[in-house]
Structure formats: C-alpha cells, structure tokens
Amino acid sequence: MTTFAELGLAPDILRALDEMGYASPTPIQEQVIPLALQGGDILGAAQTGTGKTAAFALPLIQRLLPFANTGTSPAKHPIRALILTPTRELAIQVEESVKAYCKHVPLRSLVVYGGVNINTQIPILKTGIEILVATPGRLLDHVQNKTLMLTQVNTLVLDEADRMLDMGFMPDLKRIVALLPAQRVNMMFSATFPEEIRKLADSILNNPAFIEVARNATAVTITQVMHPVHHERKRQLLAHLIKSRDLSQVLVFTGTKLGCNRLANELNKAGIHADAIHGDKTQQERIKALDAFKAGTIRVLVATDVAARGIDIEALPFVVNYDLPHNAEDYVHRIGRTGRAGA
Ligand code: AMP
Q1: Residue from 2, 4, 53, 190 whose mutation best tests the ligand 1 pocket (most atoms within 8 A of CB)
Q2: Is the shortest distance between the CB of 22 and ligand 1 below 6 Å?
Q3: Ligand 1 in contact with 49 (CB < 6 A)?
Q4: Within this chain, do residues 331 and 252 fall inside the same structural domain, yes or no?
Q5: What is the pTM of this model?
C-alpha cells in the first residue's frame, strides 16, 4: 500500500495528516497528488466521500510552501490559490480541511460565501490570506467592492463543477476565470460530465490528466468492520451487537427471501423490533415497513438486495451484510446506503 510520504508530500504536511489519523491515501489521492505536485492540470471524476478535497488541497498547499511566511504585512500574503465550490456548506467543509492540512505551515486560508454580512469578511481579507475558498457569487461581490485581488492567483480549483452548472453559476464562473492570471494550475472536479461540463473543462484546463476513481469505490466515511462467527451463531451475534451497542436504524441484508423472513422473526423473538422486505411482499407492505423504519418505530429492517433498491434514508447509520453478497458491486451498493453526502 502506498503511503502519503511516498507520494512526495513535505514533512510538515505529513505531520498534519498523521495527526488527523489519515493512515494512507485514498485512490483519488494516490492518483491526483503526484501529478498535481508537478503542476499539471487535472480533470477529476469523483464524488464527495472519496477524499477528493485532500487530493487537490495537499498538492496545492505544497506548491505554495515556497511562499509561506510569518510576515505581518498583508502584501506578503496575496491570494495565491482560489477554490470555488457551489454551496456554502461545501465551502466551509473544504476550508476546514485546508486549515487542518496547513496546521504546521504558515499559510493562511479563509472561506467567503453569501448570505452573511460581507463586512465581517473584509477585515480578514485585508490582513492577507493565501488560500481562498469561495462560492462564486460572493467572490464577485468582493471583486466588485475591491476587497480582494486575484492578480497573484496561481492555482484554481473548481469543486463539484456539475453542481455549479445546475445552480446557474456558469456566467459567474466565466467572469471569475477571466480575472485570473493566464499562467496557473487548474483542477476541476465533477461527479458527472454532461456536454456543458466538458466544454467548461476544455475552456479552462490546459491539456489535463483525466482521473477517474472507480464509481464503485466505497466512501472513506464508512467504517467497515468484519466479525468472524460460526454460521449457526450469526443470528445471536447480530442480536448481541444490536443490543449491547444500542444500535438503531440497522439495515440488514440477507441472501434469500426465506432467510430474510426468518431473521426478522428471530430478531423479534429476541426482543428487537424488526420487519422484513423482499420480493414476495406487496408494495404496500414494503412502504409500510420502510416508513416505520424511517420513523424509528422499527429498529431493524431485514432486506434482500432487490427490495433494498430505492431505499434512501437520510443519515442511515448501520448496514449489516448478514449474508455476503455475490459480487463486489452489490457490496458497495449495500453499504452505500450509509455514509451519504459526506456523513
Ligand atoms: P471528501 O471526499 O474530500 O469530502 O472526504 C471525505 C472524508 O474523508 C473527510 O472527512 C476527510 O477528512 C476524510 N479523508 C480524506 N482522505 C482521507 C484519508 N486518506 N484517510 C482517512 N480519511 C480521509
């Protein structure tokens, strides 16, 4: 397995990663970091949860290290990297990560987004910051107010470009790009690549490397645990785990309809409120079970793969593979019921 050190990151960055508990790079990090350290443009196909933030932020930070300084003059801290995101939530999250990665290097970062008083952002901008994370509209407000300068920007990141397109930010993006120095490194990330995104990439990126992480990779936000147990004692172990850890909203996958019913019955006998959904249940029965599961009135939902399609529960905390799926894709699909949207 590759380490962050082998990717060529500097000791001060490695120290921050170590403190954050990042043991090894995710697939997108492994691919993006070496290329971005060399200053190549990158077009990345990746969703949230793959570790894409660190994939673009770490090389960006490392390339700014020669400029890092503790000087107090704002002139010593021009904006050198601009990271654009579609939403304020993502902007905040990205800047928090940047700050954490910069813990041991004197580079300053700031996040600016709309919907809050612009005057609170101005004094911080005036002190000088190297890495700016922004939503497009608010960035342009600052440009118009002349409260920030983009003439020293040498790195541009467009995060979740397809969402920026959906939210109507394309004209803003074009205006912003026109304000940047031509000589710069560009990285663009998107989960999907409709025609307009490809056109945008063509107009912004310079001979980019296209990096795609397998769509069927599991999100890094999901902790996966295996419990070795004898076949006959699986049910007991499951009941034990649910009870002893006080788990609720547990989605359990079984291989057969029969096994699905049986497990739900046995859990109920063990005092754990459970219901089953599978292909032999009517649509009405399935909806009823799902609603009760979502509302928290049943603790465990036992399901087969087919019946589980379309289950979308916000913040579902636990998925159990009671019977292993037959292929890796089903496994990814099953556990992807949790860890959604960065949770
Ligand atoms: P992202 O896809 O960038 O939103 O990252 C998803 C989550 O994974 C964030 O909470 C990161 O802090 C975390 N993360 C990113 N890279 C790693 C890594 N190499 N090891 C462990 N956690 C990571």
Answers
A1: 53
A2: yes
A3: yes
A4: yes
A5: 0.69
What does the alpha-carbon distance between residue 315 and residue 12 come to, in Å, rounded to a whole number? 35
- Could you tell me the two tokens for 277? 């959904």
41-45, 118-122, 277-281: least confident range: 277-281
Q: Confirm or reject: Cβ of 189 under 6 Å from ligand 1.
A: no
User: Could you tell me which residues come within 8 angstroms of residue 294 by beta carbon, excluding any fewer than 6 positions away?
Assistant: 313
pLDDT per position as a tens digit, 142-186: 999 999 999 999 999 999 998 899 889 999 999 999 999 999 999
Distances (CA, A) of 176 to 150, 172, 179, 180: 9, 6, 5, 7
Q: Domain holding 301: CATH number?
A: 3.40.50.300
Same domain, 323 and 207: no
Locate 243 and state its tokens: 């009870």
Distance 175 CA to ligand 1 centre (A): 31
Determine whether the shortest distance from the Cβ of 220 to ligand 1 is under 6 A.
Answer: yes
Q: Are residues 80 and 131 in the same domain?
A: yes
Q: Could you report the per-residue pLDDT of 288-311, keeping only the tens digit for each?
A: 888 899 888 999 999 988 766 656
Please state, rounded to an integer, the average pLDDT across all residues of the chain.
91
